[in-house]
Each structure stands twice: as structure tokens, then as C-alpha cells.
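Internal tracking record. Fields below are filled automatically when a chain is submitted to the structure queue. Please do not edit lines marked as system-generated. If the sequence contains nonstandard residues, flag them in the REMARKS field before resubmitting.
Queue: standard
Priority: normal
Entity type: single polypeptide chain
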Amino acid sequence: MPQLFQRYTNTLAPASIVAVFIALSAAVWGMHAIIFSPYATEVGQPVSQVVPFSHQHHVSGLGIDCRYCHTGVETSAFAGLPATETCMTCHSQIWRDAPMLEPVRQSWATGQPLHWNRVHNLPDYVYFDHSIHIQKGVGCISCHGHVDRMPLMAKSETLYMRWCLDCHKAPEVHLRPANEVFVMKETVPDEKRGAALLRAEEIDKTHLQDCSVCHR
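SYSTEM-GENERATED OUTPUT FOLLOWS
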């Protein structure tokens, strides 16, 4: 009876198995790389706006506090965007005729609000409340990064679920005293201070990872 398989098939079979394993591993690694790449997360990619607003100029250069424009950040789930009146408080006096501010002047004249493009846009199935994070000592910089260094606003973090859970698992590393929440500077992690803040705010971190905290 003639031989059905040649001798080289003894080598070809295991080599094929190894090749398939390598190909699958490469595909999984490639998908992971894409999912966490700036292409998918949009981290570090400035978002085009109707007016090229510079946080770097207003926050770092002029020293304007976050709450001056984002008035709802301490009391509501949404941080809020400034009304045209807020912009015109200054720009009715300075840079009055700057071409880039024409949309602001038109909004002021017509009463139609400016339409800003969202930088951070969570899915509808995620519940997030700015006020509770601010009240409990999470600094703006923890989620939004160094906005005082951004000529144009861009995402600093992925906002993926795993990123949120990293903080919810160990909030004591990220918490700040109330007078440092709006300060645009890095802080050295102080777990003892953070643990004291947890106790003072009566935060039980064992419940922070419950699904119902963010998914309601």
C-alpha cells in the first residue's frame, strides 16, 4: 500500500499549529493595541471647536478658576459650559474685534448659544456625577489632565471602565483636601492622608466597585 503522507508532513503539522498560534496571538495583540491607541481612545487629539479656546491661556496665563466658566461642577452631574455672557464679561472690553471671536459676538447679538463639541462623551449606560467627585476630593487634574497646558482641549485619559475602576479600587491615592481640588498641579500620593479623607467623608470603598454605582 502506497504511503499517503510524505515524511515532511511530520514537521509540517506541528509547524502549522505553531504558526496558527502565533497568528492568533498577533491578532489579539493587534486588537488590544488598536483599542488602547489614540486612534480609538482619542487621547491627546484636540477637538475642533467653533472658537479655538485655549485653556492654557485662560487657566495658566490669566489664572482663571475652573468654576468661573464651569459653574455647575460643584452642584450638578454636568460641569456646565459657559454662557456667552460669561465670555463677553471680558471680551466686550478686550480683543473686541478679534476675528476668531466673531462667533462669540454673533452669539451675543442673536441670543443663540454657541455649540461646543464634547471632548469627554460617556456612553448613555454610564452614570457620572461631577459634583460628588468634586465634593469628595477628586481633583480636576485626575480626570482632565493638565488643562492649563492645553492650547486646545483634548482628552487626557481613556475613560475606559478599567481606568475608572483603578481609582474606585484605591481612592485614597487620588483624594485631595478641598482647597486643592481645583489646583492644577500633581500631588504626591499620600495614602494616610487619603485614608483620613475617606473616613472624614464616610466613604466605604468596598461599595465603590458595585455595578449600580455607575450603571443605573
